From TrEMBL, chain A:
InterPro entries: AAA+_ATPase, ABC_transporter-like_ATP-bd, P-loop_NTPase. Belongs to the ABC transporter superfamily. Pfam families: ABC_tran. This is ATP-binding cassette domain-containing protein. Residues 18-244 form the ABC transporter domain. Keywords: ATP-binding, Nucleotide-binding, Transport. One of its GO terms (molecular function) is ATP binding. It comes from Candidatus Lucifugimonas marina. The lineage of its organism: Bacteria, Bacillati, Chloroflexota, Dehalococcoidia, SAR202 cluster.
Length: 318, 238
């Protein structure tokens, strides 16, 4: 059984609001998404994968912006493509940060509210803008906004009709740390109301902090899906290269090599150690203890293959 | 629909776009003034009608200005990737296309119809029959070209290039050389309207009947409007 098969079984049984069944999308001879199936339930779901994996194409098909080449997608039991009435229940924020430069932020949110048939429009607009903490800049043209401000005003426009489903493509691009925290709290409170949030990202930690459930997309295929912690545990069990910089590399190497989960310890010419571990969790716990026992001062610990590509490569190979 | 219409008006009213449009639409007016200064107070002859009304206004200025404005109604949103703001709304596609077309018509029509009115008013010394004929012909021409070029802007990112080929090859060259092409020439429809409303205009030319031109013009307008709605329903929105 592969890692992806193991983790696919971890999906719960509450009612799905988005169903993706055997969906493929190709552009000429290039297959962007290949035979992907999954269900999304209320709560926060992270669509995780390296750049070019097919996340955006998948999200665009879920929103109905792009057609599927094969398969079927339903939202609330209805086909989403050419079903404009569904958009009163869906809010979408694409990855593109372009805005109407000439338009004031508040006018933009108001226009989006009008298009979505929002009642009590002015109150809804004020509420959405306050949610993203941009009331002070609401009457400025969006052309004068910073990247983070544009993203937040776009989020306000996405939230103005209080949709049941939020689909966000790389929403944290351009956000500073304070904005990220604000954004995370906002999405969490949204999910706590029983709504569905789907966000895509290529950054593992970003999804880890937000999502209850993760869909891992690699090379247009669903590599794994389910509870984030199950996937994280699988990641911890994979072979891992770690560079350790210390003031006494040979003593530390001698201590580390005795660990059962360590496959190899190499002392480099520059005095740094590169450790190959099969259990990174074990290494995280044991390294400080062994260093203390050997009276070695550790200056830096650095994962060498923590990129998403290597993580996904491992998961796909199973 | 009001939101999309207002948005389109604002998008198509950039300073440079309006300035260039103003300069282009001023050319027939300048020609009308020049003609009056040289020829004095007499009904314009065939040369003026052929050069200023047919060649310049109907043949170049109206199609060029409507191409620049109408094709941008959608193509700018596609290039900026803002079209999804509209298509992800719970409104039918025709409620996006129609206000976009009306917005393009309003901006280009404001300049072109005014230009046609002032040019003919000056050249025809305020002869109301001739002035209204030229203005109505120009207005119908703007509507037809707008419907065509709004669709072109949805179909391709090279709308300006294809539009220029159409204007100069089809309308400019083939429609003048091959008599059968006139039946499928928007410029010819426009001139026919002018002639039918005032038969002193283009009196030496041959025109289609009023019924044929009316039917053809309505068909062209509706077909390209319907094609735009169909395209917006079927396309992958960036």
């Amino acid at each position: 059984m592969t890692n992806s098969e193991t983790m696919n079984n971890s999906t719960g049984s509450s009612e799905a609001v988005i169903k993706v069944e055997n969906v493929s999308r190709w552009f000429g001879n290039v297959v962007s998404v290949s035979d992907v199936s999954f269900e999304i339930k209320p709560g926060i779901t992270g669509l995780l994968g390296p750049n070019g994996a097919g996340k955006t194409t998948l999200l665009r098909m879920i929103t109905g912006l792009a057609a599927v080449s094969d398969g079927n997608i339903t939202v609330f039991g209805e086909s989403v493509r050419n079903n404009s009435s569904l958009y009163s229940r869906i809010g979408v924020m694409s990855e593109h940060e372009t805005v109407y430069q000439f338009m004031k932020g508040r006018d933009f949110v108001k226009m989006m509210g009008e298009l979505r048939g929002v009642h009590d429009l002015d109150n809804a607009v004020d509420k959405a803008i306050q949610l993203v903490d941009l009331a002070d800049a609401a009457y400025r043209p969006m052309g004068t906004y910073s990247r983070g401000m544009r993203q937040r005003m776009r989020l306000a426009a996405t939230l103005v009709h209080e949709p049941d489903i939020l689909l966000l493509d790389e929403p944290l691009n351009g956000a500073d740390p304070r904005q990220r925290v604000h954004f995370q709290n906002l999405l969490q409170s949204y999910a706590d109301q029983g709504k569905t949030v789907v966000l895509s990202s290529h950054i593992l930690e970003e999804v880890e902090q937000l999502a209850d459930t993760v869909l891992l997309i690699v090379n247009g295929k669903l590599a794994a899906s389910g509870d984030f912690h199950a996937i994280r545990a699988a990641l911890n069990d994979r072979p891992y290269h770690v560079r350790v910089v210390s003031d006494s590399p040979r003593d530390l190497a001698a201590a580390l090599v005795k660990l059962e989960s360590i496959d190899a310890v190499n002392v480099e010419a520059d005095g740094e150690i590169v450790v190959l571990s099969r259990n990174v969790r074990d290494l995280q716990i044991e390294l400080p203890r062994l260093a203390k026992l050997a009276d070695v001062r550790v200056r830096r610990v650095e994962p060498l293959d923590d990129s998403l590509e290597s993580v996904f490569g491992y998961l796909v190979e199973g | 629909m009001g939101s999309v219409y207002k948005l389109t008006l604002r998008q198509l009213s950039g300073r440079w776009r309006l300035l260039i449009t103003l300069l282009l639409t001023a050319l027939p007016v300048i020609m009308g003034i020049t003609w009056r200064l040289i020829e004095g107070d007499r009904f314009p002859d065939n040369d003026f009608q052929d050069v200023a009304l047919n060649g310049m206004l109907a043949g170049v200025i109206i199609p060029l200005v409507t191409l620049a404005i109408s094709s941008a109604a959608f193509s700018n949103e596609i290039e900026d990737r803002t079209l999804a703001n509209l298509t992800l709304s719970p409104i039918p596609r025709w409620k996006i296309v129609v206000p976009k077309l009306l917005g393009a018509l309003t901006v280009s029509g404001a300049f072109l119809v005014t230009s046609a009115f002032i040019t003919s008013y000056i050249a025809f010394s305020g002869d109301l029959d001739a002035v209204l004929a030229v203005t109505a012909g120009a207005a119908i021409s703007v509507a037809l070209y707008s419907s065509l070029f709004v669709w072109t802007g949805l179909m391709t990112t090279r709308a300006i290039g294809y539009g220029l080929l159409y204007i100069f090859l089809w309308e400019g060259l083939f429609a003048g050389l091959v008599s059968g092409v006139r039946f499928l020439s928007l410029r010819h429809y426009s001139l026919t309207v002018m002639h039918r409303l005032d038969d002193r205009l283009f009196s030496t030319s041959e025109f289609l009947s009023t019924g044929v031109v009316t039917g053809a013009a309505v068909t062209v307008f509706v077909i390209f409007l319907a094609l735009s709605i169909r395209r917006l329903r079927r396309m992958d929105v960036p």
